[in-house]
Amino acid sequence: MVKLLLLCLVVVFAPFTYGGQFHFQLENDVTFGEDGNYSNGIIIGWESQPILDDADATSFIQQWQKTLFFAQPQAKKAWGVKVTQRMWTPDEIKITVPQPDDRPYAGFLEFEHHIALYGGDFAQKNWLSIGIIGPASGTEQLQGAIHKLLGASTPAGWPFQIENKATFQFGYEVDSLLLRKSAPFDSQWEISAFNYNTLGNLRSDINLGLTLRWGPALQQSFGRLSSHFGHVGNSLYQAQPYSLLFFTRMQVGYRFNDLTIDGSLPYVSQVEFNPYLVSATTGASYTFDKVAVTWSFNFYNKEYLNDNNSWHGYGSLLFTWLL
Fold it and tell me: Rounded to an integer, what is the distance from CA 19 to the centroid of its chain?
């Protein structure tokens, strides 16, 4: 499935991808010895080369999304698409009956379009997406195949997963520079603040946070990091080859709904989602020549109130490249 989706993206966007950046990302909680809550994610996406925003958007959806931005003179505009598949499971996946007091199984498939305005000290991004949660997402088959390949325990509770439901989401994020200073080795360090909000029937939340970065020419890649799931801004088209970037992001927020927990189930669940959000990410990215590899560790507080664990984590491995 992953190869097919990647091939589709290449075929559709190859004719106009000069300077465009593809990315492929894998996320899994095995990094922390877990196999529950947010368990696994696969992301395949593309973003155009940012260009000066001195012309009209080329499609109706870009024109509409652009009207939702604050005015930002001299910003560079980019747009992109991606497809993602995610899954959530209870802590114990060997149990063959419903687990009313644990997080339910949930599989999710989503297609998304975004537009971004990037400046050296201010950036804006927004996303529109449609998706499907439930058996139609194909997540049960994917996890079963992966666990069989790795010789891991076979997930036994997928017949009791969140039932099929279409999803519609909108997201908006703004980043603003607070401080940037020169550092040794011809590098810089900076601190910026961000506000990230989502609205939709999958999840709706509001978030505030801080980002710390250290690396070369930070003004050329400002705003490319994001709290939005699977978003990767195009920074390779003017990145310094053989350079290293370190980053840390911390955020707090409040969630109003969560379909992965309170969606329809074939049994009565006793689980209630936790509206209070706290999360952090720390990682590093190394850029070769038109290719980069990024590894990060991600932490988040419990997402449902009767979770016995206060914190969870997962690792993320990201490959980006220019055609």
Answer: 22
